[in-house]
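Q: Here's a chain of 249 amino acids. Please give me its 3D structure as C-alpha cells.
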Amino acid sequence: MSLTTTSALCLRKVDFSETSQILTLLTDKLGTVGAIAKGAKRAKSNIGGALDIMCLYNVVLYDRSRRGTLSILAQAELLDFFPDARRKYAHFTVMERIRELLLAIEIGPQDGPSVLLLCVRALRALGDGDAPEPVLAAFSWGLLRTLGVEPTLTHCVASGVEPSGKVEVSFSLREMGLLAPPHNERRDDIVRIAPRTLRALQSLEADAPDGRIEVDAWAGASSLLAWLVAAQGGRRLRTFAPLDPVQAL
C-alpha cells in the first residue's frame, strides 16, 4: 500500500461499528475515493477525531483504490469547515446541492485538483455572502467543463443560427446545444429555455458574470447544468426538480 498525503473534502460518512467510519472523500491527488477511518470516533483517536460532511481536511491515506477496495485513513487534520456558508439556509442548501453533484459522478485522479478547487471556491464564495444561485450555476458550469462537456449556447448546433435573445429557445439534451426550427421538431430530448435564463448561461460561457441577471434566471441555469452533470454519471438528483419539457426554465 502506498502512503498518500492529500487535501480532501468529506462528501459522505457512514458509521461503521461504534468507533469507525466509512467515508467518501474528494481528494486532489486521487479523485473520489472510499476510505475507512478505524477508531476515528474514539476519545483518543490517532486519526484526530471523526470526520464531518463538507469539511476540508489534510489527510494521510494508505491508498488501496487500485485494488478496488477501501483505502485506510491514517490521519486527518481539519483545514476548514466553512462556517459562514452554513449560517443561512439558502447557502447551506446550495452546499448540499454541490455535494449531491459531486456524488453523482466519478472523479478520477486527473480531475481531482480542478474539481476540488472549484468546490472550495464555491464554498468560500457562499461564506463571503455571494448570492447562492449564481454560485451554484458557476460551480455546475465549471464542473461540466472539467469533465470535458461544453454545451453550445450561442448558436444552433444544426444550422448555426444565433438566437435573438427575445424568445424562448430549445436545448437538446442529446446534442448538448441549442436547436432552432425545424431541427427541434418531433424530438423527445428538448428543454425550453427562457431568454433571461439563456443570458445567464451565456454569461457563464463567456466568463462574464452579469449582476443584472435575475435570481430566477440563475435558478433555471443551475437546474439545467446540474442535470447535465448528473447525466455524465447516469444518476438522478434528489434536490433538483426534474426538467420539464413543457415549462421553460
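Q: Can you summarize the key feature?
A: Residues 82-249 form a domain with the de novo design (two linked rop proteins) fold (CATH 1.20.1440.120).
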